[in-house]
Amino acid sequence: MKSFFNLTFFVKSPFEKLALGIVFFIILISFLGDFIVPYDPTQIDFRGKLQPPSLEHPLGQDGAGRDVLSRVLSGARLTVLSTFTVIFVVLVIGCTIGIFSAFAGGWIDNILMRIADIWLGFPPLILALGFAAALGASLEAAIWALIFSWWPNYARLSRMITLDILSKPFIAGAEVLGVPLWRKVTFYVLPNAFDVLIIQVALGVSAVMLSISGLSFIGVGAQIPAPEWGSMIADGRAHMSTAWWVVVFPGLAIFFSALSFNVVGDALRRELDPLLRRV
Amino acid sequence: MHYFFQRFVFSLLSLFILTLITFLLSQVVPGDPAIVAAGPNAGAEKIELLRSEMGLDKPLTQQFLIYLEKLAQGDLGKSWFTHQPILEDLIRELPPSLELVIIAMIINLMISLPLGLCSARYNDTKFDSSVRLFAMIGAGLPIFWTALILQNVIGGELQLLPIAGRLSFEYRTFEGYTGFFLLDGLILGRLDVFFDALKHLILPAFSLSLLFTAVGLRITRTAMISEFQKDYVLLARTKAASEPRIMFKHVFPNGAPPSLTVFGMQFGWMLGATVLVEEIYGRPGIGRYAVKAVTQSDIHAVVAVVLVVGIVFLLANLVVDLLLYLLNPRGRVDK
What we know:
The complex is a heterodimer.
Chain A: H1 14-36, H2 68-104, H3 106-121, H4 124-135, H5 139-166, H6 169-177, H7 181-217, H8 229-236, H9 245-272, H10 274-278
Chain B: H1 2-27, H2 33-38, H3 44-53, H4 60-72, H5 86-121, H6 126-140, H7 143-157, H8 181-187, H9 191-228, H10 231-238, H11 243-277, H12 286-295, H13 299-327, H14 329-334
């Protein structure tokens, strides 16, 4: 890490600063969303059905008269937090398998990575669809489904970094000093792998977020009254030709979140990635 | 020959793991399949009978072998919502989806390859940054949302392209041999049908391809940039080779193969992503079939779609790898 205290060192252009701002904003909203919503996001009001954006309802009202702004804000919790859950669990599982595989070496390494290779190949969305169908449609099922189909990404990456770190002289030094295995993992491998992993996390967010909202859109994720962004779009589809705001705003929320995380991930990669620096 | 063999074994291994996954998926179904199949009024004896008939009393490994045997015979079970053998459903639904994915792939290649090459050549110019911005935006757009917006604006408001379906109303009686309307139109010499089908394909194919184009563009650009830095380009420049010659004759053929691998993988991913597009555009296909099956909790139909998409994915990768091997003589020496 370049500087521990200056956490925003990696953003250079105004565009990237804006993206980082949006990322912080989205994370904040996903925790505070339910406390700052102007209306109850599931409160039905038939008199306000499909009302266009106004001062009272800045983003309009949906087919059941629910406030779209409140739903988008409160939806951040469902969409963003479930994305983070997927990424976090996949990171832990993937790194455990990857680091274990790298330390074990030999045929164990071979078999684990072959499985990861094959797994990685299968279209994640369709695999998740199958898994969600087996578990029954719910947001939890979609989260599990994505964890199930996403782990090899991180397993392969963390194995690669671990092998790279294990080839360094300081590991040979640690070997001589008789440093125990758990210390090697926690004090030698993980801190050195941090940079590459954080890049992958930032870039993974948009892919997972698009998948979660996609699964919700086709009805295997969050179920319709829930203000998840994908299911909001599914819910508003029928009204789209007369009330564009019902579909456009949740879509923009997904788009700006995914875009911002991608921009931040790219900036991180440019500044931190040792593989890029070598070229 | 050794490489072919190795590659083939890898595909077979992948296929085996795929069937293992689909088998396990169909096992997770909540509830006892025998009780469900027997119906609500069945007695304990009938349930036991069905259980042994369905092979549910056997150990899991043996059930897996039975499953494989059925697969080999093309028996994927019966769909609960179409009341037809799933294999027949899939044979009917696959051509429209493949047609869509092939057109989307062509759009993807037509944008990614030339733009990636040019943006690598003019690296760090205004042109390059606008290409990168386009890729950035494309990678953040949800496929289903773009599809809805394009359908409503271009198809609905501006009425430039058809909103839904595969063919216009006047061609409703058209029937081909292959299920691919583009191909049928050409075979039967019905160019009007061909162009009508193509018009219906543009919006869904473009919405489907956008996310993949963004990724393909980035990968092509990166591959080409590192290719432009190689010594032979410098040599060609000192020999005063023309710039187009360097780009198309030297850099492109050398830099394209790594991105071709990615495009091969994208083919299968796109087929999976049809679940997001086909339903919106009212097109028949395995994507819409899968969504319907999920909402009807018809697990065997869903699992069959997973299996078929997986197989298409494996085949596409196999074909691309063999193609690269044949195209690139260096690979033969390395392996």
